# Entry
Amino acid sequence: MRSIAVLAAVVGCVADPNIWPLPQNVTSGTSSVTVDSTFTFSGTQSSDLKMAYGRYQKQLFPHSGANSGTLKTCMVTVANGAADLQLGVDESYTLSVSASDCKITAKTQFGAYYGMETLSQLVVFDFDTETYVIKGAPWSIVDAPRFSHREVLIDTSRHFQPLASLKNIITSFTYSKINTMHWHIVDAQSFPYNSPTYPKLGKMGAWSNYERFTQDDVKAVVEYARQRGVRVVIEVDTPGHASSWCKGHPEICPSASCTTPLNPATNATFDLIKGLFKDLQDATIDTSFHIGGDEVNTGCWTSTPSVNTWLEQNHMTADQAYGYFVGRVTDIVFGLGQHATGWEEIWNHFGTKLDKRTIIQQWLPGSTIAKNATAHGYRVIWSTDGVWYLDGLGVTWQKMYQQEPCNGLTDDECKLVIGGGGEMWGETVDTSDIQNTIWPRMAAIAERLWSDRSVTDVTKAQTRIRYFRCLLNRRGIAAAPPSNPTAREAPKGPGSCFDQ
# Structure
């Protein structure tokens, strides 16, 4: 028997299994187990689990006409098969496989999903015998994520992403145990959402009549993701990044020629924001809402006479008005019973004046926000530009793999880093290239957020990430070669998937 316990030094003594992300604790053997193509999942039953059983039974056996095997079922035992999907939900699982037995145990259905995903990565098709096989048995895996928030930001404003594309992206997340789609749904360039309360926002602000989401579309994406253990956290960036709002509602903008930041001098702005946020809350289930707050240039406020007069009457500088705006928006979010997340500029401006319920998302290169905010008891999401921004096409998976969100933090401060993610900004991606821009580099971030902190060896990860990229390709995900110096480049020439 050989053991891979990443909490101990023995991890360096054995070959890591072709499982991505690497589990917390693995014991394996030297035997092979054949898996029958009639293999089924049994045990705990719930509507969510039944759907997952069906998905994974299909995923396990892509080739028809396989010969029979000895392993015919896997017993799944879940303490709560109808758990609510929110930040911090239990995602742990155990998996054991022997010649005649397969068991998955989990506290929630989401942990069971990850157990099934790990099992699916162990099952391979032997083309010589036309049999499904699990090599290295018996297997015993005890696993749980290091961080509870593991995201990919998807930007549907710079380029619209149709429903089918969003669902394919969400499906790809599950293969590396990513559990959050940070949906940057609108921005300055377009407003592709039909707000029931303010329909002019989408009607006037979208790129075209064909590039919008209805309320039911948002609900459908949220439910599709929920069924796969993926949270959907909506971001509506305010007060900057909002020029598209002015096309339908010019009254909330400083002027026709100077459109953002949104106008702080009229309650109409905050009435609209409240109604819009309520519409999106009605379409989603997550208790977190992202308010943006980044890259706010207040020049339009001081250069617009009506807004500047309001500033003078209220004895505010433009920077103080920014604080006033963020305060009102976070109060709206809290009033709706949700937690507010904002980009790190809100911490840079307001620090400990922020409500402790606020989550700070760190992104600026060289930032020390993770240290500063956690030292004062605030929660942080780590997603540094230049190393974890997926639109940075020259950032390799190796560089992404070498990042550590808790560098320089005490153990107590690290506990307040709830996770991080890769940010797929949409300026140069649309449906044609988004998958191969995200993958396989996002896998490096996924492993950093799931596996033990000691799992940092790029050389040891090289074989596994190539194998994982080929697995993604077999599952219909257009992941680019990991050896590319620039993301999403085509292969240099003929060759095996495993050599690219």
Confidence is low (pLDDT under 50) at residues 1-14.
